[in-house]
Amino acid sequence: MHIHPRHRAILDLLEEKGEVRVSDLCGRFSVSEMTIRRDLAELERSGLLRRIHGGAVNARGRSYEPPFLSRAGAHQFQKERIGKLAADLIHDGESIALDVGTTTLEIARALKERSNLNLTIITASLHITNVLANSPGIRLIVVGGVLRFGELSLVGHLAERAFREFYVDKLFLGVGGISLEAGLTEFNLEDALVKQAMLKTAKERYVVADSSKLGRIAFTHIAPLNDVHVLITDSEANEKVIQALREHGLRVMLA
Amino acid sequence: MHIHPRHRAILDLLEEKGEVRVSDLCGRFSVSEMTIRRDLAELERSGLLRRIHGGAVNARGRSYEPPFLSRAGAHQFQKERIGKLAADLIHDGESIALDVGTTTLEIARALKERSNLNLTIITASLHITNVLANSPGIRLIVVGGVLRFGELSLVGHLAERAFREFYVDKLFLGVGGISLEAGLTEFNLEDALVKQAMLKTAKERYVVADSSKLGRIAFTHIAPLNDVHVLITDSEANEKVIQALREHGLRVMLA
DNA sequence: TTGCATGCGCACATTTTTTTGCATTGACGC
DNA sequence: GCGTCAATGCAAAAAAATGTGCGCATGCAA
């Protein structure tokens, strides 16, 4: 990729100060504010910084997170964008299944931001439950099961059966990998079984996966690609891979 | 999600001091009180702090809603003693059902302290789940259900059915009231239904109730006194009431 | 009770920043 | 020379952040 020297300089400044302002940068580089905004927008798309009103801050070191929620640092920014886009697809009154995972957790966070939304949400993730607890307007159904440490996900026959009993408008599924050859795959067998159950009961089925998951094959098979309708990923994704997935009949949305 | 540096600074201050005031913050950041109020409102919506009159306090650590917290304060010492005593009755290898409530939560906390204990615990309380998550040796089964705000308890047919499917060695039940006339009673109907389901599947059935619950009658009937074997309460309890309960065949333990 | 002080939050005004559409520039290849 | 294309600038419109005025609630002291 051809990197603009100004971009490099902006990132250096950001590294040094932690925060930069549009008004400051345009003077420093003798360009218009418009140009700086475009620069920042592009750098933000690459996940190298985060835009704020009037400037930008370092993408790393966002520290005010509730401690009990572990942030998966990797591709965090892409996940947030995916989460936001997914949340925007959800309409008032719908019933939604939210899978376990850091990307789906971002959907939950984005949903919490949107108020006056009446939703029924079913999930096997206690992280998501903790985020959405006490959100007015959201009726939260937690499936039962054995608690899997770390992920705080519920697995086992209680979980699988619970999903079989509810029919939802939309499912947002997280995966360990998605590829043409192996379809949807996952690292943990028990989680995979739950995912299979989820897939059976949803009208519209979305996979959310940041670009690092594309083309990757994890340990267990979940389902063939055809079982889902839409993939939501981020704009860093390799174009050829996306094209191939589209030709396979999958609708792909870029966040 | 907004990354406003001021938000970040407010949270840092909060972390340091434990409490911040609107009037102080608006001077510190040279903005109007209105702006600070808006900031605090937004941060509260994200669950990062708790608003109080004139300012905000840290929400981290014990991160949940007022109703539960305020109730947790009452008779806290007694509850801790009861929890400790109950936990001491639990032996390695047993399976345990832990009911929803502040007293049973203390049992969970006491259990977490005791290491090298292999247990299977089933519960409908997300507070308890959060306490016991990642405790080595404890296999945690969470029943499913609809999340009841405030209590963070799971209710409904998923919860009831889950309890019916597991047989446990010991059940520790919390109640809203316990009396000779009305037996075991509870404030919330849905919780009461779940409690009934729990009672059916346990070999040894304990009620934990601090002395303020004795002689009190809450809204719904759970079960007659005969359905439980032991009451664990604190030593503040009225002796006559205890005597009466003992004569009725209930074993009473004082913590 | 009344009056006062404090704090809250809505509605609207103001300021700042961003977005958008379009024009301009200059490098590059033909 | 000339068309193309990416980079840039400009200005109007839109959106976001902030400030101000005002009514309301609460607590406290006269």
SSE-based structural type of chain A: alpha/beta
- Which oligomerization state do the chains in this entry correspond to? homodimer
Write down the overall geometry of chain A: globular
What's the rounded overall pLDDT mean of chain A? 86
Helix content of chain A: 25-40%
Written as H for each helix and E for each strand, in order along the chain, the element string of chain A is HEHHEEHEHEHEEEHEEEHEEEHE
Based on CA atoms alone, the radius of gyration of chain A comes out at 20 Å
Relative strand content of chain A? 25-35%
Number of helices of chain A: 9
How many β-strands of chain A, per DSSP?
15
The poorly predicted ranges of chain A are 61-72
Strand order of the largest sheet of chain A: 6-5-4-9-12-14-15
- Quick one: which chains have the greatest interface? A-B, 38 and 40 residues
Task: Give the N-to-C terminal Cα separation of chain A.
Answer: 21 Å
Main sheet summary of chain A: 7 strands, parallel
Describe the structure.
Two copies of one chain form a homodimer. In chain A, the strands form four sheets. In chain A, strands 6-5-4-9-12-14-15 form a seven-stranded parallel beta sheet, sandwiched between helices. The first copy, chain A, is built from nine helices and 15 strands. Chain A is globular. Chains A and B meet through helix 5, helix 6, strand 6, strand 7 and helix 7 of A and helix 1, helix 7, strand 6, strand 7 and helix 8 of B. Chain B binds a DNA duplex (30 and 30 nucleotides) through helix 3.
